[in-house]
Amino acid sequence: MTPERTRARLVPMRPRDPHEPGRVASSLELFFDLVFVVAVSVAASQLHHSLSEGHVGGGLLSFVIVFFGIWWAWMNFTWFATSFATDDWLYRLLTIVQMSGVLVLAAGIERVFTEHDFRIVVLAYVVMRVAMIAQWLRASHSAGAARRATLYYAGGIAIVQVLWLIMLLLPESVQLYAWMVFVVAELAVPVVAERRGMTPWHPHHITERYGLFTLILLGESLLASANAIIEALHDHESLGKLIALSVLTLVVTAALWWIYFWPPHHTAITSFARSLRYGYVHYFVFAAAGAFSAGIEVEIDSITHHTELSEVAASYTVTVPIAIFVLGIWWIALRDNADRVVNVVVPLGAVLVLLDPLIPIPFALTAIFMAGVVATLVLRPPAERSAELG
């Protein structure tokens, strides 16, 4: 059935049915994700250089700050789209405006790491968020019971963007403190808005969107694995170690994929409180996936003697992201679908990974621990799948 359109060829932006059958990610949403991954890739690359040069604290802080802007803009659009997505020219245009902001943001990431200059990143972020304000205001005209929520979203986002612009005028010595306060303000907007009238979300659609973005982020780690092989072809002295690193990276990346997609994620967002936990904790999951690829590059530098870090410190740049990723997914999606054995093995595996750098062959043991976690998941399927098999 063809949707009704106005004279301007626009489709009324009514709330989508949260139980709509066959709801899947659109080609526009997939296109949108690819642009964001460009920014993630740049951020991971800058993190790699900072860590290899020994600037651990500054590099991690810059990554945390930049990644918040990337993740929050992606997440806001994703949840909006699951509730109000249409497929007319204005919706597409505003989405492309957001994508342009991401590309500009990516261009400004290097200055954040090297000069602590946030101007380009903040201005690009504000462009993305202004486009999001326009989307919420448009949705308010046909939102029905969710109208107050859409207006609170639009107003809340607008207020916080003014704060971000004010931050650029503050002395550099207080900008970090302002950033922390304004992050809390951003995170508070959905909490306040949803209490004024819940927006509908499609559990299968929203978790598919998170899963697809996770796949793309894990793809960055596979690229790092390929880089290890490429480096091996030019460094015959370290040939064996680099090829081993490449193989182990593939094993661990596959294990992270297996762990992430083991539980039925749609059961993790059955209430507003649970959806907040699911969405917000994914910041750490996504950031860890991006940092994991940076850690692999640091390991390559360590093997080829191109880093200021010790071997132990270089190993931690790999194992810490793995542990955060696993613990994050266990907390928000896996533990409620697992039995006692799985709920012991998964977090224990993450903790053991953190001990690996203290052992002479750390990354090999990381792969073994992750393979052990996966073997446990194979033998003990989630509750929902067990019922199907039974």
TrEMBL record:
Q: Which UniProt keywords apply?
A: Membrane, Transmembrane, Transmembrane helix
Keyword Aminoacyl-tRNA synthetase found: no
Q: A Pfam family for this UniProt protein?
A: LtrA
Keyword Signal attributed:
no
| Xref: InterPro entries | Low_temperature_requirement_A
| Record-annotated membrane-spanning stretches | 24-44, 56-74, 89-108, 120-138, 150-169, 176-193, 213-230, 242-260, 280-300, 312-333
Region named Disordered: 1-20
PANTHER family (UniProt xref): BLL5714 PROTEIN
What is the protein's name according to its record? Low temperature requirement protein A
Task: Give the species.
Answer: Kribbella karoonensis
